[in-house]
Amino acid sequence: MTTHSSTTHDLAQRKVQFDWSQTPLHWIPGDASASHLVNEINLILPAGEFWFCKVFNRARPLITDDKLSEDVKGFVGQEAMHARAHDSATVEYLQASGIETSGHIRRVQWLFDKPLGDSPWGVSLPEFLQRPWLVLRLGAIAAIEHFTCVMGKFALENSAWEAAGADANMVDLLRWHGAEEVEHRCVAFDLYRHLCRLPAPLRYLLDMLLIMLVVPVMLFIWNSGAAYMMRQDPQLRSYHPSVWRPWIWREWRRAAAAGFIPSVGWLLWQALRYLRPGYHPTDEADTEPALLYLASSPATLRAESV
Ligand SMILES: [Fe+2]
Ligand SMILES: [Fe+2]
Fold first, then answer.
1. How far is the CA of 59 from the centre of ligand 2 (A)?
2. At how many degrees (to 10) do helices 264-274 and 127-157 cross?
3. If you measure from the C-alpha of residue 185 to the centroid of ligand 2, how many angstroms do you get, rounded to a whole number?
4. What percent of the chain is predicted at pLDDT more than 70?
5. pLDDT tops 80 at residue 102
6. What is the rounded distance in angstroms from the CA atom of residue 236 to the CA atom of residue 139?
7. Domains in the chain: boundaries
8. Nearest bound ligand to the CA of residue 143
9. pTM score, whole prediction
10. What's the gap in Å between 179 CA and the centre of ligand 1?
């Protein structure tokens, strides 16, 4: 029987345990800006990933393919664990280091609850619009998951963090999460294609529109969250970090040149790759190195030993 699933194995939720007691605020030694720019993912991901779970759980009863349905279940289990792990970093590491995070998290949560919720802006949709609204959000998640996959690959292959003496726990968090993003990179794409009834040319136009929305929103939230934390950092406060000021974008460029974070240009290039005809997530990364990392991730081994 043919399946709409491109994932060749079963996706499992792996338990992890991180110890944040020794992680310094500037976890990339000597680079406060790069530390905060990467730290922003701890703030944005839990709200985003729980939103993925909610939307996928809504979509699951509509799936008519058993393997894909199992993939979606595995995906939801993994994303929920990612969200919890980044939450633990926010509370036990960032807040414990004196960084207030709730103001920024509230704004991110608002985005996923209000405009992107089941009832956008509190408006209950008539039944005939509920499925298109669901599929539209699945399309947005498929686009976002393209970025989490390529950034996961970036994290797995990055040697700049170790070369700079970065905190091993944070590097493991990024690699463990990145590896599972690579592992489940096809699920959002498969689910979106399975439920979207638009003819291919119209779906391509929709994908263009979605990526044009996803990229600026992602960059804006990423940078504004990093600026929110930088303004609380005595070492950076005097630069008045703000998403609206060139300073933070220059810091991003510098941190990217050092290899600590993907550059904005590289992210824009990934957006174009997503739109190339014949795009398929299987071509974006290899599962084998991701599974190899997951078998030896210190956080996974720590969770197994308790
Ligand atoms: Fe994730
Ligand atoms: Fe993911």
1. 16
2. 130
3. 7
4. 100
5. yes
6. 38
7. 32-305
8. 2
9. 0.96
10. 9
